[in-house]
Design brief:
Elements (H helix, E strand, L loop, with lengths): L6 H28 E7 L2 E3 L7 E2 L2 E6 L2 E7 L3 H4 L2 E7 L3 E5 L1 E6 L15 H16 L2 H17 L2 E8 L2 H11 L2 E8 L10 H15 L5 E7 L7 H14 L3 E5 L3 H11 L3 H7 L7 E5 L5 H9 L3 E4 L1 H6 L7 H6 L3 E4 L12 H16 L7 H8 L1 H6 L17 E5 L11 H7 L6 E6 L2 E5 L2 E2 L4 H10 L1 H7 L6
Bound molecules: zinc ion.
Length: 477
Amino acid sequence: MKKPVALPVVIGVLVCSIIVGASAQRRAARDGAAGVDLLIAGGAVVTMNPDRRVFENGFVAIRGERIVDVGDATDLKAKGYKAKLSIDARGKVVLPGLINAHTHIPMTLFRGIADDLDLQDWLTKYIFPAEAKNVTRDFVIAGTRLGLVEMIRGGTTTYADMYYFEDAVAEETRKAGLRGMLGETVIDFPVPDNKTWEAALNYTENYVKRWKGDSLIVPAIAPHAPYTVSEEHLKEVKAFAEKHDVPIITHLAEAPTETKAIAEKHNTRPALYLEKIDFLSRRLLAAHVVHVNEEEMEILKRREVGVAHCPQSNMKLSSGAAPIPRMLELSLRVGLGTDGAASNHDLSMWEEMDTAAKLHKLVTMTPTVVMAGQALEMATLGGARALHLEKEIGSLEAGKRADIIVVDLDAPHLTPMYNLTSHLVYAAKASDVTDTVVNGRVLMRNRRLLTLNEAAVKAAARRYQKQVVESIRGGAQ
Ligand SMILES: [Zn+2]
């Protein structure tokens, strides 16, 4: 006969096994929850969340394509995250990836072909003829790759683009791992990829069907401008965008010549004209928006139109200064764009932030407009709002896409540092970016590109140089 076990011992064993079982379950559950793909920890984390929280010593945890946690690095031990890959960000700053709200990426191959001209001369005597003679699908691929290298190196993780052969732009962007809202340009004259309006719409329809629903590429339709696309065609574009549920990207109110052309043809102002033909909506991302008055800004606000402010391009082409301080007061959806490399020379969002913050102080003679924090916001969350993608990107918050950059703060031009935001806007450069992550995938690690062969990309770009020079010899064609 077995010796009876004392009740307290039985209860003790039972309780013990329940505790052991529960803690094993907790551990298993915790290990599952704590398994992350990427952990960036140790640096200052600028979240751009609703409280604009900055963790002096923070972390960002990423699982798959999304951020799962952002917080103080001193809590990491308790959280017990086990990461497949870790990036040590000590001495650096971690930011939401920068959003370039307006580019023509293949135009990197036209970098600097014609300078010191106004918009009309620059466009009609150089750009349109050079495009007619040079732009092919292969040209677009070579220029896109060059632009992608530059953007990944400079910490741009999303860009809004409009050009020809945009299907090829999307393919290259997908392969390189960047995020893009990419618009096929449609215009009322024959262009390199499509010779008629019908062909252009047909191309765009196939393009949209191919990319709709992709996790990186948002396909869009991009009528060039209100003065290069007829009223009837703009209405067709709007119907197309609604039918396929895609965004529209366009240039709007860029230069005084446009204001004059619209006044002559439609007897009104550019933005009022688009309102009159019912073209403005939250589908629209409008680049430049320089020549708008109070009434037009209020309409753009009401219609939730995104605005891509391109200060360097506007300065270089003497287009004017957009009323950005007023737009920010009105809480318009304002982001920053470089425009194409032919009207800016580079795709650096760091220069664009710096210029935006300074230009409006000069124009208004008021040093308190477009503060450093507002410039940084336009390059991140503001850009996301301009693209109507603020639910997915633009800040470092759990649930959002993991589009993150790490910036070194060790350079002489960043030393000493009294104010982080001020340094990011007025002193940091594209070359200070060390790591670029898009959709959870590391595209640059310690300044080494992981998805593109930079030497081959530059060599391919240089091969187009002679051909481009020949094509614009003599200027006006
Ligand atoms: Zn443009």
